[in-house]
Design goal:
Blueprint: E1 2-5, H1 15-24, E2 30-35, H2 47-56, E3 61-66, H3 74-79, E4 82-88, H4 95-104, E5 108-113, E6 131-135, H5 150-164, E7 169-173, H6 178-187, E8 191-194, H7 196-199, H8 204-212
Parallel strand pairs: 1-8, 2-3, 3-4, 4-5, 5-6, 6-7, 7-8
């Protein structure tokens, strides 16, 4: 299992030290949750912070835009060093066009869906994306309880990926810990986003290791 710790749960008063920890860890990527207070009921951080993170983080950046009209910011996200730019199905009227913009900018493209959005709606976009991010909590805040129905959504998505011949990997974000991570791994998830489970743990290294071995 690949692990992408969520910067949202880090201590921003000691951001440099938090990034040093990530650099020294076995984490595969660093997940950046960008929130606008419109698409989700919270505001996180923007491009100045992302540029700082890119300057000091040695891990690939996994950028998740929980914002309206994400197509307006493709160039800015690229300039912040993102390897993957993920946008929400619910936020994009012309999703194919946005995915193409992301690819044209030289990034991998991901699409995310909220807990209440059915997996079947992704059928016509799956062959065009590199990653599908299933939200296992309602986006906007860290520390929420894992929505158990996500397990069945993962299985359904895994089947849909096989049927369509897509090469997209499956990522899950929200309420991930050793227990829920094990269930996700069994269902076919490739990578998990872990916020509080990593950054609030007494042994962060062990927390990451417990997920990577799943």
């Amino acid at each position: 299992m690949k692990v992408s710790p969520s910067l949202l749960s880090a201590d921003f008063a000691h951001l440099a030290e938090e990034l040093e920890f990530i650099n020294a860890s076995d984490a595969d990527m660093l997940h950046l949750d960008v929130m606008d207070g419109v698409f989700v009921p919270n505001i996180s951080f923007g491009f100045p912070v992302m540029k700082y993170v890119n300057k000091h983080c040695q891990k690939p950046l996994d950028v998740h835009l929980m914002i309206v009209e994400p197509q307006k910011f493709v160039a800015e996200v690229k300039d912040c060093g993102a390897e993957i730019m993920t946008v929400h199905y619910e936020a994009c009227v012309h999703l194919n066009r946005v995915i193409q913009q992301i690819h044209d900018a030289g990034m991998k493209a991901g699409v995310s869906i909220n807990p209440a959005t059915p997996v079947c709606l992704l059928k016509d976009i799956l062959q065009d994306v590199d990653l599908v991010l299933l939200m296992s909590v309602n986006p906007g805040f860290g520390g929420q309880k894992f929505i158990s129905g996500t397990i069945e959504k993962v299985k359904e998505l895994r089947q849909l990926i096989a049927v369509t011949g897509s090469k997209a990997i499956i990522e899950v974000d929200g309420g991930v810990n050793a227990e829920t991570g094990a269930k996700l791994a069994e269902a076919g998830v490739d990578m998990v986003v872990a916020g509080n489970y990593v950054f609030k743990s007494e042994d962060r290294t062990a927390a990451i290791a417990s997920l990577k071995k799943l």
